[in-house]
Automatic annotation (TrEMBL):
PANTHER family: NAD(P)H NITROREDUCTASE YDGI-RELATED, NADH DEHYDROGENASE_NAD(P)H NITROREDUCTASE XCC3605-RELATED. InterPro entries: Nitroreductase, Nitroreductase-like. Transmembrane segments: none annotated. This is Nitroreductase. Residues 32-87, 89-171 form the Nitroreductase domain. It holds the Pfam family Nitroreductase. It comes from the Bacteria. It comes from Paenibacillus ferrarius.
Amino acid sequence: MTTTQTGYQAVITQEVEAHRKAEYPVHPVFLNRWSSRAFEAKEVTNETLYTILEAARWAPSSSNLQPWRFIVAKTEEQKQKFQTFIKPNNQLWTVHAPVLVLILSHKLRQDGELNGAHAFDAGAAWASIAFQAHLLGLATRAVGGYEKDKAREVLQVPADYELHAVIALGYRGARETLSAEFQERELPNGRRSLNESIIEGSF
């Protein structure tokens, strides 16, 4: 790690401490992980990538159906294919991510009936990716701004799979590599009070 990178990490640590205060004691991983748009031009090895996806393999799963699937783009050709359906504003920064992963979920149970938990379980897999990546020193950001119909066509996704988010994955870069608009937003954000999310007994 260079001196510049070390200094930037110190700034990020200060910003996390300034913007993120837990109301109850939680593991630091939950406060220190946040979604970045800035990525270094540094390769993510297959071992690192597959370690991250291995964590997702062990996510909680209703009836152990494991509906999640991951379409991975690592090569320039594969990533350019993804850029054809990512919306222009998101192309400005996703083009620099070393890896892009589209998370899908299989919608049906083994008997052909709808698996009502398929999207819920895919969300658990995404969380596992985000936290395992953070533990390995990488950053992630989920991208909802893409054309799903075009992605389905370009990637030849069957109709019984639902498309969720494109995950940009890589080593966190300095915010100065982003456009001015994105630099202003390249911060660890806070959360509303826990009491605002808890409903005791009934709505």
